[in-house]
Amino acid sequence: MTTADWRPEGWLDDATLAAVRRQLPIVYVDAVPVRVDDSGDVVAVGLLLRMVDGRMTRALVSGRVLYHERVRDALLRHIEKDLGPVALPQVPSSPQPFTVAEYLPTPGVTPYHDPRQHAVSLAYVVPVAGDCQPQQDAIDLAWITPEEACGDEVQLEMSGGHGYLLRQAMAHVGRLP
Amino acid sequence: MTTADWRPEGWLDDATLAAVRRQLPIVYVDAVPVRVDDSGDVVAVGLLLRMVDGRMTRALVSGRVLYHERVRDALLRHIEKDLGPVALPQVPSSPQPFTVAEYLPTPGVTPYHDPRQHAVSLAYVVPVAGDCQPQQDAIDLAWITPEEACGDEVQLEMSGGHGYLLRQAMAHVGRLP
Amino acid sequence: MTTADWRPEGWLDDATLAAVRRQLPIVYVDAVPVRVDDSGDVVAVGLLLRMVDGRMTRALVSGRVLYHERVRDALLRHIEKDLGPVALPQVPSSPQPFTVAEYLPTPGVTPYHDPRQHAVSLAYVVPVAGDCQPQQDAIDLAWITPEEACGDEVQLEMSGGHGYLLRQAMAHVGRLP
Amino acid sequence: MTTADWRPEGWLDDATLAAVRRQLPIVYVDAVPVRVDDSGDVVAVGLLLRMVDGRMTRALVSGRVLYHERVRDALLRHIEKDLGPVALPQVPSSPQPFTVAEYLPTPGVTPYHDPRQHAVSLAYVVPVAGDCQPQQDAIDLAWITPEEACGDEVQLEMSGGHGYLLRQAMAHVGRLP
Q1: Does this complex have an ipTM over 0.95?
Q2: Comparing C-alpha atoms, which of B29, B122, B39, B125 is closest to residue B81?
Q3: Are residues D93 and B38, on separate chains, in Cβ contact within 8 Å?
Q4: Under DSSP, is residue C75 helix (H, G, I), strand (E, B) or coil?
Q5: B8 contacts in A (CB within 8 Å)?
Q6: Would the pLDDT of D100 be above 90?
Q7: Average pLDDT in the D39-46 region?
């Protein structure tokens, strides 16, 4: 039986999900999409551009793990949702994340913050080899160098600790400026 | 503001928690308590003995991460709850787990299984230096060698994939038999 | 300046290298070649078959890191040397290995053994997407399941701790039987 | 037989070691000594102060792995050599480093540099619980906050990429400023 064959007893409606989000930590995944060269060295980072409240923001690929969904299937689903169906992501063979990002509704307890909820997010660097197109609410997908990604300008356009997580990812792959 | 200063808007009552457990993955931590020598090499593994339905079972330290609780605080809390207040655990300085155990209500999708819920558990090897005493429902805490821990006899006394996770932990520390 | 542009002051001749191997640990890489599905889950492991002293043996991709060579370039070079030029290996973006295998000339100190030398080997799981052909001294490259790879029959055909390292790799990717 | 019981066939004399250092990568370990709180959170980083060519420099604990010495024994030996015999280091139970630092004699190929040699260094964060005293050539051991450790002033006093490795360590433990 695969994940796809399975159906839950009932989805949470939006009101219930909102209530639960104030009472339980929610399981998330964060993916840092990267382009790599033949030696696996990261040469570019892909960031989603969105307009939020009239302000340009940049974000990583991020989303919830569903009931009865494996972490690796959630990763694949969110990457396809945000980068399109032919991004050809190389989902890691090991479930070991490079870090765990703890988004709390109270700012300052951890480097991460989400006013809506307490999310515990497994973070992965994911090389994508195919053609990526911004989907849904994103207005662009920009590929920038690790140096640009960690620079003040880009960091200020990221919120909730995504800029911090991105710098941790670059430290992990040895491309922190 | 520390984790301890914070109070939730309202705890989930048991019925609601039971319902949510059929609809959302729950964040867990698993700790493999170990004794180490001066070089950090694992010399013994601590397993909790419990009577479950009249049968002797062995288990790792395991439990839920609460709303607004950091993963490292959940680890410390569960270790103190199961091993007592003077176990002196060395909670890892990095949140990177050695693996992520996905306990699904359907057996066979992953090596882990929990009929009550879908738990996504961050797994850590935790050296404990102090005096450990079984608490609450546990009738004993047995320290056994990595070889014994991975042997058929002990593995058969563990359920839900704890035996599997224990072998992964021993592979991670280089003590798989 | 890339690794390829660089030339050493002088290669070690075979006699000197043999002498040094009895006096200094040598830097190695080990790669476990795998096939993965779209979700990154390991479905097969690639093992090299060689005749050694009239006996069939199975081995991982393994070799020395050269002076002034980056670890990732050594990984790529040894994979191409053993699996051919169109294997399309996905060399990890992070230098963090899943473990470090310490091959000592004295058996029993660690799970790894090499009578010729003390090698400290950085071990990686490397998905390969392309066509693989055994090269040089290998007579075949067999793709087998993780279950077969960890089974007694295959484990007995591996020597020096390669079977042990393979089981650690399968534990790391969640495919230990 | 333990590591300590073993004697090499012959130590390398200084001239030979110097020659080999221009021809083979040398196995190293780097340790970032830290103080942690009960939850394992890093509260301070320990840096060695030395006078080098009349200039004040700060350094991590770093050194060679000897022939037939396990990585964990080398870590313990170098920490005791630099922090004294009662530092009570908690050497990691797993050999998996948080990163691998590649010190090349040519600057700019990697973030690390060592004009004397090509060193491949396994890097670990090591909590120390005891009393630390600077030894030998160090004139002081300063405990500073992660924020100070990553600040410009301290970073400029570190050389060869130690400042970079320190920032990677802080990213790994979630304490990058």
Answers
A1: no
A2: B29
A3: no
A4: helix
A5: 22-23
A6: yes
A7: 98
